[in-house]
Specification:
Helices cover 38% and strands 17% of the residues. It is an alpha/beta fold and 272 residues long. It has a single domain (2-212, 240-270), classed as NAD(P)-binding Rossmann-like Domain (Rossmann fold).
Length: 272
């Protein structure tokens, strides 16, 4: 199978591409220098020339807080860019995998979200990603919408590295009233590969189980053997421009391992 990946230089893309190759796929890596998803003519040209069997669309505007003040750019990349990819894939009969987010949900529940639950984003980032989902569903017959959450990986800024970088502080305060599913990029990548044998549709591909950011930090420090003066705080005590869902736990149907086991592997690889 020939797979074209957008956003191949991003945190997910850099782990996804070698895992796809290990699965036997021929991978075409693209990023904004080779494929500007906001340029519809370039999208048509590249996909027509490369003729992939599948496109995995990782390219996105992911700065949640900045999207509150720069909605125009977030919409250009997450909505218009996705429409360009989806429309071209639909016309050429290419299967599209679209990476979405738990932030399509409002967090006003206490039960893990299923793919049947109705999205209701509460920030601009989540809204633009949901609009991207809708574009994929309306413009493609062959698609996988893949919602993931609390992503971390070796090739980008993420919560795990931030916490380890703060370990020598006198005190570290972390939010303890937002609940979600930490997900390692390699777990997500392997989960995407598993979808290829499943029916088209919407899937939740995230770490199994759930925790708060404080609980996540506590596990990072414990597994790293670091003694840190870690203190829980509330979202109100750590204000950010974008509202976050209080509870964005998703039911992944067992497609990924427990988040603690994935973190262990991440930390072990980090030391290599």
């Amino acid at each position: 199978m020939k797979i074209l990946v957008t956003g191949a230089k991003g945190m997910l893309g850099q782990d996804l591409c070698p895992i796809l190759e290990d699965s036997g796929a021929e991978v075409i890596e693209t990023d904004v220098d080779k494929l500007d998803i906001t340029n519809v003519e370039q999208v048509k040209q590249v996909l027509s020339d490369e003729k992939p069997d599948m496109v995995i669309h990782c390219a996105a505007y992911t700065n949640v807080d900045k999207a509150e003040e720069d909605l125009k750019t977030a919409e250009l990349i997450n909505v218009t860019g996705t429409e360009n990819i989806a429309e071209t894939c639909g016309k050429l009969g290419i299967t599209l995998v679209y990476i979405s987010t738990d932030y399509v949900f409002d967090g006003e529940t206490v039960e893990p979200y299923t793919t049947e639950d109705l999205p209701n984003p509460i920030n601009n980032y989540g809204a633009t990603k949901y609009e991207g989902e809708e574009a994929v569903r309306s413009l493609c017959e062959k698609y996988y919408v893949v919602r993931t959450s609390w992503l971390y990986g070796h090739h980008g800024k993420n919560f795990v590295e931030t916490m380890i970088g703060l370990a020598d502080r006198n005190e570290v305060n972390v939010v303890d009233d937002q609940v979600g599913c930490p997900t390692w990029t390699c777990e997500l990548a392997n989960g995407i590969v598993k979808l290829f044998s499943k029916p088209y549709g919407t899937y939740h591909v995230c770490g199994s189980g759930f925790t708060t950011w404080y609980g996540f930090a506590k596990e990072i420090f414990a597994q790293s053997g670091l003694e840190v003066n870690l203190k829980p705080c509330t979202t109100d005590g750590f204000p950010r421009p974008a509202k976050r869902p209080k509870f964005s736990v998703m039911d992944n149907g067992g497609i990924c391992r427990k988040w603690q086991a994935a973190l262990k592997d991440y930390l072990e690889l980090r030391e290599v």
